[in-house]
Amino acid sequence: MTAISRNAKFVRENVILHNSFFENSIPLIASENLISPLQREMLNSDFNGRYAEGWPGHRYYQGNEYVDRVELRGIELAKKLFRCNFADLRPISGTVANMAVLFALTSPGETITAPALSDGAHISTARFGAVGFRGLNTVTYPFDSERMTLDIDGTARVLREVRPKVALFGMSLFLFPVPLRELADVFNEVGCTVWYDGAHVLGLIAGGQFQDPLREGAHVISASTHKTFPGPNHGIVLANPKDEEMEKALMRGVFPGVTSNHHLHEMAALCIALDEMSRFGRSYARQIVRNSRALAESLYDRGFGVLAADYGFTASHAVALNVAALGGGSACAELLESANIVVNKNLLPGDKSSQNPSGLRLGTQEVTHLGMKTGDMEEIASFFERLLVKKEDPARVRKDVISFKRGFRKLKYCYGEGYPAYRFERFLR
Ligand code: DSN
């Protein structure tokens, strides 16, 4: 048998080191998560190497009998879980889902309305992101940075002034629901299609612990499927289309608009995730929100500048900290990483530099997936205090982080509960 090359060994060793780093770390990036053992099986299957362009039953390739069965079942699961008439499991990421919606619902040269990047919107809403790629202009909504949500009157004014064909909502720093209900009359008056980027909060929506956009005025949700929704790295479009034309446009937007093949192994894993969330989603999402509130409170009690303090800190998986006085987002994130706590620096309203913003964004969806409860958030907050406020030696804090994390290496809220979350399966010696 041919021996494994040095390059191949190098790659594998570094992937194993990465696994081990996360096994010994506290993961608090608000856009990440772990997947269940059954989903891993799907990722490892022959679906990985196959093509299935088109809609199930109307493919351009042979060999898709079982792929079609799986995808059709997944579409049904998604429609049931999110109570909608249309689901497309083919977008290969959240940004690709966004591009598909743009392709379907807009034409170059038009103007859409969207939240501003500096207020926590996703890069695909920016001129240098997918919106610009589609050749669109954007008018942004005013933001209430005390409440960390859209300024309702200002947003209504923008909608009335611009009268966009498409109004986009949804954030990457997503602390509170979008005031869709409050704006519903304006949507009707303007006649716009309401599009909700639900990537960050998809698992909370599935678990009934956040807002329910499709019941509150949104026509379309685009999302990635690996944040609070603990599925594979993939995307999804969900909708109650206004008419058949819109449904067809959404389908065409995904294929042939912005995808060719749709990564069938991920699609199969997504089907499992949809089923798992219909069983475990409610308790998982409930615990995520409890944990983020507990984390925010513990950090606030230790003197941290937790945003939206007068408004309950958060109603989602995310917590935002202003750490400008502690050296800024960049320096604080690096210091935390040196003690095996993984977060990201984040723009806060008013920030200009994305390289050195004043914020940190934290998310509790992954630690919750590993079984942490509100009491464990106290422990995490104390690590933050020791590092960032008391300036304790990161090596000492790191030792305690590793020992704390030993109790949280197994998955919860999925089939095969208790499965080792960081298991690396070697096929070759
Ligand atoms: N950039 C991701 C995030 O961290 O929010 C979303 O795509």
Automatic annotation (TrEMBL):
GO terms for biological process: glycine biosynthetic process from serine; tetrahydrofolate interconversion. Its cofactor is pyridoxal 5'-phosphate. The modification N6-(pyridoxal phosphate)lysine is found at K227. GO terms for cellular component: cytoplasm. Its EC number is 2.1.2.-. Pathway: Amino-acid biosynthesis; glycine biosynthesis; glycine from L-serine: step 1/1. Its main location: cytoplasm. (6S)-5,6,7,8-tetrahydrofolate binds at L117, A121, H122, I123, E244. Residues 23-383 form the Serine hydroxymethyltransferase-like domain. GO terms for molecular function: glycine hydroxymethyltransferase activity; pyridoxal phosphate binding. It holds the Pfam family SHMT. InterPro entries: PyrdxlP-dep_Trfase, PyrdxlP-dep_Trfase_major, PyrdxlP-dep_Trfase_small, Ser_HO-MeTrfase, Ser_HO-MeTrfase-like, SHMT-like_dom. Keywords: Amino-acid biosynthesis, Cytoplasm, One-carbon metabolism, Pyridoxal phosphate, Transferase. Catalyzes the reversible interconversion of serine and glycine with a modified folate serving as the one-carbon carrier. Also exhibits a pteridine-independent aldolase activity toward beta-hydroxyamino acids, producing glycine and aldehydes, via a retro-aldol mechanism. HAMAP family: SHMT. PANTHER family: SERINE HYDROXYMETHYLTRANSFERASE, SERINE HYDROXYMETHYLTRANSFERASE 1. Belongs to the SHMT family. This is Serine hydroxymethyltransferase. The lineage of its organism: Archaea, Methanobacteriati, Thermoplasmatota, Thermoplasmata, Candidatus Sysuiplasmatales.
